[in-house]
């Protein structure tokens, strides 16, 4: 039987692969940015002008009620909703808005809801929207307006 003598193991130097970690960090940031939803509601509406001012802080839920003209010339109301996390979704109507608003109000009863409604929409329609939100459990509502004397679309 033959025996083999192995050399004594030598210690390996400890090193941190900084370039590989930097590449991994950059790749992680790029994947995060690619997957992040950056959705700012740009529904074109003309807000009513008022003197009074109240503000809803960041993270407020948003309901947009706008008029849209179909190719046939018919005018329809559109409902859009955001729970404050950034993504905005089109809703089928008041019943769907009720479900979404009640889900948000159940999770956070103090959540502020901002309503953006075109100034040409009838008051009865806005009142029905307010009633839908009230029935869904929403308690804090702010109506978005524009300052008097300033024309054009409202800021999102």
Looking at the structure, what is the overall shape? elongated
Count of helical regions: 3
- Number of strand elements: 5
Strand order within the widest beta sheet? 3-2-1-4-5
CATH C-level of one domain: Alpha Beta
Q: Over the alpha carbons, how many angstroms does the gyration radius reach?
A: 27 Å
* CATH architecture descriptor of one domain: 2-Layer Sandwich
H/E element order: HEEEHEHE
Q: Percent of residues in helical segments?
A: 25-40%
The span between the termini is 85 Å
Poorly predicted regions are none
- Please indicate the percent range of residues in DSSP E strands (runs of 2 or more): 15-25%
| Major sheet details | 5 strands, mixed
The whole-number mean of residue pLDDT values reads: 82
Determine the structural class based on helices, strands and strand pairing.
alpha/beta
- The CATH topology of one domain is what? Nucleotidyltransferase, domain 5
Question: Helices, strands, pairings?
Answer:
Blueprint: H1 18-35, E1 61-69, E2 75-82, E3 88-91, H2 94-107, E4 112-117, H3 123-135, E5 140-143
Parallel strand pairs: 1-4, 4-5
Antiparallel strand pairs: 1-2, 2-3
Question: In words, what does this structure look like?
Answer:
This protein is of the alpha/beta class and about 160 residues long. The chain has a domain at about 60-145: Nucleotidyltransferase, domain 5 (2-Layer Sandwich). The chain has helices spanning about 20-35, 95-105, 125-135; strands at about 60-70, 75-80, 90, 110-115, 140-145. The chain has a five-stranded mixed sheet with strand order 3-2-1-4-5, with helices on one face. The termini are far apart.
């Amino acid at each position: 039987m033959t025996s083999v003598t192995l050399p004594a193991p030598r210690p390996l130097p400890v090193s941190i692969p900084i370039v590989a970690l930097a590449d991994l960090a950059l790749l992680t940031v790029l994947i995060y940015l690619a997957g992040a939803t950056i959705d700012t509601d740009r529904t074109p509406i003309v807000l009513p002008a008022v003197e009074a001012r109240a503000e809803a802080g960041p993270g407020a839920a948003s309901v947009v009620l706008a008029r849209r003209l179909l190719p046939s010339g018919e005018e329809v109301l559109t409902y859009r909703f955001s729970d404050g996390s950034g993504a905005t979704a089109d809703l089928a109507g008041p019943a769907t808005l009720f479900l979404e608003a009640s889900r948000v109000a159940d999770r956070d009863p103090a959540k502020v809801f901002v309503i953006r409604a075109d100034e040409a929409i009838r008051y009865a329609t806005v009142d029905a929207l307010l009633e839908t939100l009230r029935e869904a459990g929403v308690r804090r509502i702010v109506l978005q307006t524009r300052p008097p004397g300033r024309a054009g679309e409202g800021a999102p």
